[in-house]
Write a structure and sequence with these properties.
Layout lengths: L2 E6 L3 E6 L8 E9 L5 E14 L4 E7 L4 E3 L3 H15 L1
Antiparallel strand pairs: 1-2, 2-5, 3-4, 4-5, 4-6
Length: about 90
């Protein structure tokens, strides 16, 4: 399900959606940040829906469980991460 990130903070986020998601539901947010060179960094946040608002549009408040994790955006990124890990291990 895709949504629009309304705001994000250290402990959670507010997201607009087409359909409601009930409080207590565990969710994973993949937040895409774009830099000035149009490169996209994706960070994954695990959390649970804390509140649901249905008027005037459907919005949920999500509380994060822990910190976000960077997501490799392409196979090349995954290879580069793995290679860097091997270099650091030697």
């Amino acid at each position: 399900m895709a949504g629009v990130l309304c705001d994000i903070g250290v402990g959670g986020a507010r997201v607009a959606l087409d359909k409601p998601v009930q409080p207590g539901t565990k969710v994973t947010l993949f937040v895409h940040f774009q830099d000035v060179e149009n490169k996209v960094t994706t960070i994954r946040f695990e959390g649970a829906v804390q509140r649901l608002k249905t008027e005037p549009r459907c919005e949920i408040a999500v509380g994060f469980k822990g910190s976000g994790r960077f997501q490799p955006s392409q196979i090349g990124d995954l290879y580069a991460t793995r290679t860097a890990g091997l270099k650091n291990a030697s």
